[in-house]
Amino acid sequence: MSKLPGSGRRGRAGLLLALVPALVALALPSGASAGGRALPAFHDAAGIQVVSAQQLDDRQFDVVVLSAALGRPVHVRVLLPTDYGDHPESRYPVLYLFHGTSGRASDWVDMGDAAATTAPLELITVMPDAGFDGDGGGWFTNWVDTTTSEGPSQWETFHIGQLIGWVDANLRTIAERRGRAVAGLSQGGFGSMTYAARHPDTFVAAASFSGAPEIDRDPDVIAGSTVVVEGTAFGLDHVQPEAMFGSRITNEINWQGHDPATLIENLRGMALFLWTATGAPGPYDTEPNVAQSGIEYLTHVSTEHFHDHLVEAGIPSTYDDYVYGTHRWEYWARDLREFVGPMMATFADPPSPPAVHYESIDRQWQQWGWSVSITRPSRPAFTILDGAGPGGFRFTGDGIATITTAPYYAPGAAALVTITDRAGIRSHAVFAGSDGRITVQVVVGDLLGPTTARVTVASR
């Protein structure tokens, strides 16, 4: 039998000595210095507690975190730029990259070639769990039913309200809209688009790979999305079917309020990217797979309708319907390779923020520097802020709304505010606060539903 090179006793000793630096590097705790390179020390921040942090290689970390929004530990996989530790003063854009149904934080590294794809880039990639231990996932929403065996399942609060702040506190990020993108596959493609639509001031680019960017606008999409979402809850998460978004009969507006196609105007001014196929076998399909073909067809219908609505609204996007392909990793890995170039170009030359327009079903929200809180009847309703700027705004809703402007004004500056709403027409003097903002209250809505108030602000 021929010996492998170095298989003798001296060879084995030499091999062990050669492996020592690599083994030491892998054993370094988070925050240690490898060869003088500054590595991150992950710590608690933004409502997230660090349970453990393991460095897997010179770029990759697996961090287990706990948040009251979820009630159970989840994993966050992080890929740093290759030279992150060599440039302690540099800051980097972040890609938030989501897995699909029954996925895990490690999926994009294990099956999507994310490490190799991002290796040449000056980019931090953050891949969080979007479900518990590979179950069906939470569909990127704060669950209506917080009493199930899945716990609170406030996934939007975790991903948007906490994780982004935690990442910014722990890593050298460009902690602004111009430095954040979001992308995902399948259920994660819905996640990327619903988060982009509900938080347009947070991301400058969003991408969906074989995703479901529409769940509640066209009848054929509604039928399919209801089966898939409620089937995920019941069949994979083992909870009652309406736990996530609520009943289609009694809480349809909550589905609409998380549907990117319904919220499509919120996406104006963002770089949008869509990849999809019909489910017909393509270059990576060696044999027929009915399940992969069927799921891809369902996501294709959703993506096609969503793109049509973008076109109708005059909102630009990059749309790649490559026709031949099924619901499998080889296509999503290719999608990611095709996305990162335009994404990095967007970071380098971000589009100007759009005119302020925002629609929401939430009772309180903050976007583009504006803040809205509405006290309304028991029936939920959309609120719409439009034409918002230093000279005033239009506001549509149902109830009594307290609206605080962006910081347009000099602290203490006097202005004349004229309000036209359900209560009539009235004018009064106001003074900007120390933060340069003005707060006004409007009365909207009637027996027929939401109405629009108009507010003008004139300097005095």
List its traits.
single chain; 460 residues; alpha+beta; Rossmann fold; 9 helices; globular; disordered N terminus
CATH architecture of the largest domain: 3-Layer(aba) Sandwich
| Total tally of structural domains | 2
What does the largest sheet look like? 9 strands, mixed
Q: Overall mean pLDDT score?
A: 92
- What is the overall number of helices? 9
CATH topology of the largest domain: Rossmann fold
Helix content: 25-40%
CATH class of the largest domain equals Alpha Beta
Contiguous runs where pLDDT drops below 50 for at least 5 residues: 1-30, 32-36
Q: Give the helices and strands as they follow along the chain.
A: HEEEEEEHHEHEHEHHEHEHEEEEEEEEEE
Distance between the termini: 95 Å
Q: What would CATH call the homologous superfamily of the largest domain?
A: Alpha/Beta hydrolase fold, catalytic domain
Give the tally of β-strands.
21
> What Rg, in angstroms, do the CA atoms define?
24 Å
Beta-strand percentage? Answer: 25-35%
Sequence of strands across the biggest β-sheet: 3-4-5-7-6-8-9-10-11
Question: How are the SSEs ordered, and which strands pair?
Answer:
Elements: H1 9-27, E1 33-34, E2 37-38, E3 48-55, E4 60-67, E5 74-79, E6 94-98, H2 107-110, H3 114-118, E7 124-128, H4 155-170, E8 180-185, H5 187-198, E9 205-209, H6 219-236, H7 252-256, E10 271-280, H8 290-313, E11 318-324, H9 329-348, E12 356-360, E13 364-367, E14 370-375, E15 383-389, E16 392-397, E17 399-404, E18 414-421, E19 424-431, E20 439-444, E21 451-459
Parallel strand pairs: 6-7, 6-8, 8-9, 9-10, 10-11
Antiparallel strand pairs: 1-2, 3-4, 4-5, 5-7, 12-15, 13-14, 14-17, 15-16, 16-21, 17-20, 18-19, 18-21
Helix pairs in contact: 6-8
